What does this fold into?
Amino acid sequence: MTASVIKLATTASDHHIARMAAFALGLSVLEAAIPSPLPGVKPGLANIVTLIVLARYGWRTAVWVSLLRVFAGGLIMGNFLSPGFFLGLSGAVLSLGILGACQHLPSNWFGPVTHSILAAFAHMTGQLLLVYFWLIPHTGLAYLLPVFALAALVFGTTNGLIAAHFIESPQIQKGRLLENN
Amino acid sequence: MQYIKSGDWLVILAGCLFTVWLAGAVWFNGSADKVIIRSGGKIFRELSLSRNLEIEVPGPLGLTVISIQNHQARITSDPSPRQYCVRQGWLKRSGEASICLPNQVSLELTGGGKHYDSLSY
It folds into this structure.
């Protein structure tokens, strides 16, 4: 009796997306080790990968990478289908939506920093809406809004700068960092 | 710095302004001016925060004592077994509330950011 092998036909672009999602995944695992002062406030380092992918390969690929990261991250961190997972998912969906809209901004005026800040605010909004309508339907939540907004601004700017650095670095321009190894 | 384009500066500035505005709106807005006391889900009394007084509210377990002082309000004593509402201490801000579930009494501060002075049906 031979063991049955299921083989899915994959294309080179599937591998490429998986590799970039794995990069993002590595960053989110790394980030899970950083203590956070308030649940929901974290740097969101994985979004750097999303921003680079967005700049280089477009919005569709960025959606794949980001959502794969959220789902696989849930499985790795053991919080798949838990409230924390859904918070991440709602944040990711909303920020991907904003990033899609950002594509239409004139690119010689607005760069990755803008994308990152807007996406960070969208991420916070998505999370907070879910928290309010699902977990804590109390207006006292509003009291924390400025803290979340400040975190979005600071981390959004930082991530945007890091992403801009990589996007403009010659290594990435040649497509080496994300494509091979 | 060469990574920040001119539009990016605008977005950063807008983000700062938004955050500051949010903090102003949420943290430094409207101290409460009214107290709503509910008993068994119905409004038992609505009082102004500006007069110091003590009031007794009857519930299924006994009397809950609420005091108002210096624009603050608290539940001073309550027959509930765990005393959560008493331990919550003084309430100052609009929207703050303390609830004695066993005795079905609640205290809520309103005013400041409220949209209507009064509504009647």
